[in-house]
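[retry 2/3] KIAA0895: previous attempt timed out, resubmitting with same input.
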Amino acid sequence: MLESIKVTERLHWPELELSKKYILSPTERHVSLSQAGLQKLSSSVLKDIFTTGTSSYNVLLQTEEERKSPKHSPYKKALKSARCSSTSNGKDCRQPPLSPPALVGSEWGGDAKHIPCVSGSPRLGHGITVTGNTMGLAPRPRTRPRRLCFSGSVPRTRLPLLAAGGAARDAENSVRKLCILTAIKPSNVEKEKLKFFKSDFTYNPQFEYSNPVSPIVLARHNNASDKFLTQAVRILDLAVQKYGNYEKFEQATGGSLLTKSRIWYHVKKYMEKEGCMGEIVVHLTDDLLSRASMTVVNGRPTLTINISTAREHWLEGMLRHEIGTHYFRGINNNQQPWSSSAGRKKHNLRPLNPTEEGLASIHSVLFRKDPTLWRAALLYYTVYQASRLSFSQLFHSLRRFVKDPSTRWDYCVRAKRGQTDTAQPGCFSKDQVYLDGILKILRHREKIDFLLLTALGKVSYEDIDRLAVLATMEHVRIPHFLQDQARYREQLDKIMEVNQLTDEQLQELI
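[retry 2/3] KIAA0895: success.
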């Protein structure tokens, strides 16, 4: 099971940025044996955790490291690391154990030395205080668990064993498969953007792809829905009526753009709050279609942040989206009986989306003063319009809500990615999943156990009750913002009110 990733460098906080990429790690901390072994863990194992989250809907550009195909199998390295970490007398593997993080203040719910345990049903009780600090993941028990323990310490855990037979071969094959979201990112975006702007926005870009996706696959993602179109347009109109246009809404609710040093500061502060320092590589870029993306790069969980959209009042919401939702649910999923595709099939799990992205999107706006669901609504609307219009027509139709040409261009590229001739109607429909998931979760918010939804991993809210009795619930990781359930549910009601959504309306739709 997964624990913390080995820290390969100590981060000093300089006055000036010296690099765009860091492993955020606390100073004066040592690395445990299991952390050392996990450094070389196969990326395919980690990809099982993250490819069903944000990375399934955001295009992370391929880095130079990704383009290189290693001659040696990463699975042999992972097996070697696992053997190394399990050998107590190995000279090369001796490391001091990782010290448990100290918990201070009332925010953490009491004495860090106290470990609350509940006997009986494996359902998470609302009276339990979960610290949100780094927790180990226990090996899956053979029998149904009878106790739930939430610990603020970091117990020693074993690395997952990688099969040497067919499973390993299947994993290697999955690594070779190019992620569809990387494949559908045009390779000539900047060139076509220049043509489009020079034509006074009348030219329809002709996109090229380094690794084209088959028409059959693209056809499966070319079906836009209008089920929530009325709600999407209403949300956008409300924001325009209040602020005038998107740019004013962005400035008023998002605040100023952050410098790189301020981004590093806020990310570090958030990771300390969640107890996940040293586990995630952080990469800043301005070459990303989305605001952020949690993926696996060179076998390491990697958070990529788009610095051109990182605003002071929105950044923590993005971190709740990527780390507090996708990353923590992925880690929890890895210890469950349905952690593999075979396990999901065996337990007849529903698709994790739209729940996964809906939940993460709710967490993006959770504590905003104005939790208007602008982005989810605009993505939904843009995809629907793209299915009916050419690129140029789509660009002009978005002017109703977005004045800035560069911002409109980005939304159009997201909706039209995968197409070669964008003069034709067509879309990549995945971006509709955000609003779809938000509205379905809000519709059932009174019945959903959100603590349990996080603890069970990458599952749909519809499967919670059925899977609760089958789950491994020891040492699950719960983000700090879910600890106060009363406040959490108040925020859900606020989201409903601000976006003029009613229970009667959602019950009729869903």
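[retry 2/3] KIAA0895: Confidence is low (pLDDT under 50) at residues 1-20, 27-45, 51-178.
[retry 2/3] clearing retry counter.
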